[in-house]
Amino acid sequence: MNQTADVIIIGGGINGCAAAYYLAKKGVKDVIVLEASDSIGHGGSSRNGGGVRQSGRDVRELPYVMYGIQHLWPGLSEELGVDVEYTQKGNLRLGKTEKHLEKLQTLADNAKKVGLDVRMIDGDEVREINPYLSDDIIGASWCPTDGHANPLMATLGYYKKSLSMGVRYYTGAEVQSLKKVKGRLRQVVLTDGTVFEGDTVIVAAGYESRYIVRTVGIDVPMTRYFDQALVTEAQPEMFPQMLGTADANFYGHQTTHGSFVFGSDCGLEESMDMPLNEFKTISMTLPSSCRAIEGYIPALKDAKIVRSWGGWLDMCLDGVPVISPVDVVPGLILACGFTGHGFGSAPAVGLILAQMAMGEETVVDMSALRYDRFDPYQ
């Protein structure tokens, strides 16, 4: 097999697949994607609630997330030839206490400063938008341009389209190390000893990125976090909005076929002592998720759960990802530490990674996400 390429991407999740597609679209003829597992999108890309949101984010993320929602998501199904089930019907981020509203107000105020259409509404307006929500909700932030999509279909769309354009994918390709040649990153070595060579290497492998890039002497300050999700049986059509809460104890939406998909957080997830290839859900946390959902959406209290799953998030120290070339390792580009926010931004991130690999100016300023923000000598 040909083990050389113009660009090698480590990680076959949605960010890696999107970067591969946009590189191929730009005319790069030789792109390789290396995925450690036996299937594409096996990590966080297939283990999330499908939110495509701007609200509730750190302002450093907003420029590229807003770009993606304005320019990429609306036509993505047509571009990829796969229905990604993108729905843009808004996001309600719900609060039950004054403390919740203070947190939501701060997030909304910060987002408005960079041009996002988001505002605070009271409980009555919340229930006008969505009558299925609890009377205990006293307010929410409302962003009408937020939405949701199907993570599996979006990842599959980027994979299939890029594959048809000549991108080469290798599954079961676990990376052991990176190696420089004459001061520049050149080689990717697999655990079976196979060596791939490329002019540019993009590392977009979730938390495993930390182990991979340590082999060339750099570190991204991340922790791992076990995220869980559940799917209900199909329900009558209820509401199209994406939901979240001020405490982030659950988020989710109703799918096009009627079931609800929810992600959840009970506070114990960062302490889970399991290997990164373990995806079993945990009985001590899922009941907490169900109680939280019932407390906000009483109409779902009798809905049966048909499936649950888990996956690992790469949580960055300062809450936003690293998306940048690495000056001290020429030829290396990082895309990791997404902190659970990576799905909705993936089209924009994929485009920006392709632009970085081509040496082009990115569509928005990404300087706030540079790796060297953690350099104490900067």
Automatic annotation (TrEMBL):
Record domain FAD dependent oxidoreductase: where: 6-356
Oxidoreductase: is it a keyword of this entry? Answer: yes
> What is the protein name stated in its UniProt record?
FAD-binding oxidoreductase
Gene Ontology molecular function, alphabetical:
oxidoreductase activity
Q: Which Pfam families match?
A: DAO (PF01266)
Entry's Gene3D superfamilies? D-Amino Acid Oxidase, subunit A, domain 2, FAD/NAD(P)-binding domain
Q: Which organism is it from?
A: Pseudoramibacter porci
Keyword tags? Oxidoreductase
Q: Which GO terms describe its cellular component?
A: cytoplasm
Looking up InterPro entries in the UniProt record yields: FAD-dep_OxRdtase, FAD/NAD-bd_sf
Coiled-coil ranges (or none):
none
The UniProt record lists the keyword Repeat: no
